[in-house]
Design a protein that fits this description.
It comes from Neisseria arctica. This is Zinc permease. Keywords: Membrane, Transmembrane, Transmembrane helix. It is a single chain. By secondary structure, the chain is mainly alpha-helical. It has one domain. It has 8 helices and no strands. Helix 3 packs parallel to helix 7 and helix 5 runs antiparallel to helix 6. The radius of gyration is 18 Å and the shape is globular.
């Protein structure tokens, strides 16, 4: 593994983000198709959490108290983000009731930009901890980036605007991944473990409070649950067979 390889893998979610924007430009999925995509993405993120991130945290052998506190801090951070986005969305709805024209979905955009920054730091922390961990996390979060363009499409954000937004998000995740790796490359085991524990809370929030909640807003078929497991199995298979 040469020195350029981590950066190449950091590029993957950035490129996938742009591809997701182009896909959203050409295809507007039905609510049912969107729900299936969300189930698959949730399965992939859960697999990244269960098969790579949590085992890597255990391998670092940090003090349990550090991990517990870090996970709790990550949980409160994500809860604070939820409160912020809810406030922005309610403020926007209030303006619309007063007759103001629709603008961009500010709450969703703020939440998305924070999510992507956290995802980038997760990838960077993964590379700082272990090259294989960084590669696996980059591949797993690329699925989220592919879905992102389809998730952001709305009456107020469509066409080439969605491509531009996903391009900016691609640059953002690349920048934060590089920054995270740069800041943590010489960090102690305790610091890296703390960051990874915070990251675990962020990924858990992404799955349970965003992807699956949104996926359940539409009428579902029973087999959608199998799509969740398919996402988990696909990621786990790639980890076991494709990355050595």
């Amino acid at each position: 593994m040469n020195a350029v390889s981590p950066f190449v893998f950091m590029l993957i979610p950035a490129v996938i983000s742009v591809i997701g924007g182009v896909v959203a430009l050409l295809w507007n999925p039905s609510p049912q198709a969107r729900s299936m995509i969300q189930h698959f993405a949730a399965g992939v993120i859960l697999a990244a959490l269960a098969t790579e991130l949590l085992p890597e945290i255990a391998r670092e052998h940090a003090k349990p108290s550090i991990l517990i506190i870090s996970f709790a801090l990550g949980s409160f951070f994500m809860f604070g983000m939820k409160l912020l986005t809810d406030y922005l969305e309610k403020k926007e709805l209030s303006k619309q009731r007063e007759g103001e024209p629709k603008g961009l979905a500010l709450g969703m955009l703020v939440a998305t930009f924070i999510d992507i920054a956290v995802d980038g730091l997760i990838i960077g922390a993964g590379f700082a901890s272990n090259t294989e961990t960084g590669m696996i996390l980059a591949l797993g979060l690329s699925v989220e980036m592919l879905f992102l363009g389809l998730a952001l499409v709305s009456d107020r954000l469509k066409g080439w605007k969605i491509v531009a937004v996903t391009a900016v998000l691609g640059i953002e995740i690349l920048a934060f991944a590089y920054l995270g790796n740069l800041l943590l490359s010489n960090a102690s085991t305790m610091v890296i473990s703390a960051v990874l524990a915070c990251s675990a809370a962020a990924l858990l929030y992404l799955v349970t409070e965003e992807l699956l909640i949104e996926a359940h807003e539409t009428e579902e078929k029973n087999y959608y649950t199998l799509v969740l497991f398919a996402g988990f199995l696909a990621f786990w298979s790639i980890q076991m067979l494709g990355v050595k």
